[in-house]
Amino acid sequence: MTNDLNSAFQFxxxxxxxxEDREYAExxxxxxHARGVRVFYDRxxxxxLWGKDxxxxxxxxxxxxxxxxxxxxxxxYARKVWTNHERRSAQARALRENEEYILPVRFDDTDxxxxxxxxxxxxxxFTTPDQLVDLILQKLQRPLEQATSxxxxxxxxxxxxxxxQLIVRRPINWEYLLFAGVLVQGKDALxxxxxxxxLRYARxxxxxxxxxxxxxxxxxxxxxxxGITSNIERILKRTGFRASRGSR
Length: 248
Known about the structure:
Blueprint: H1 2-7, E1 11-16, H2 22-34, E2 39-40, H3 46-49, H4 54-65, E3 66-73, H5 75-79, H6 81-97, E4 102-106, E5 122-123, H7 129-139, H8 160-169, H9 174-198, H10 211-246
Parallel strand pairs: 1-2, 1-3, 3-4, 4-5
């Protein structure tokens, strides 16, 4: 019965996520795809999406093309226009059929409009991608042992959030990726100083003065300027004197 139900849809699951959470979502998509699950993931559908009216097409996908919608809830997700469009389409489907369709996966505790706090969810902060994939397979009533050895794509983490996701996933040699990410972040932090060095520009490091210190600073600067001016005048007078003697 479940197999017949799944075959009625173009996709087994549709993934809805914010771009900032793409790395984790892509790891799930790759793992599901390796297990023969039909996944709607935008990078898998680039040719199909090319030229389409995405507003209309995505509404059709999230309302009727998939058996389940895996929604990756986060602060980024709540703020994005396209994720809210996908969410409203998925919620319309869930309301119409009055059964579980949206499967929430939370990166944080951000409130998602229309997603009730009583709805059971998976916490990505304490769930590895492999564990989440196993849960999705159980939801689809697929055997867990039919996995193939297709590795999920991994990248050097460039942000704190990507580091957190890497630590949760812990792929092969994740320690080296984490170390590389720390080095990359340090390099990015030093980038402005390197540019200053190339331009031979030294930034002022004097701390900001208080109101009481401004007067003393200005007086000292004026005295220094007066001394420089006096020295210049003395040099000019000497030069002029010698020139006048030499002309006689």
